[in-house]
Amino acid sequence: MTNPFGGQARPAPGLPQLPTPPTGWPVGSYATYEEAQRAVDHLADSDFPVRDVTIVGVDLMLVERVIGRLTWGRVLASGAASGAWLGLFVGLLLSLFSPDGSFLPILVGLGSGAVFGMVFAAVGYGASRGRRDFQSASQMVAGRYDVLCEPRNAEQAREMLAKLAMGSPGGGW
Question: Which residues form the General stress protein 17M-like domain (predicted)?
Answer without folding.
Answer: 27-100
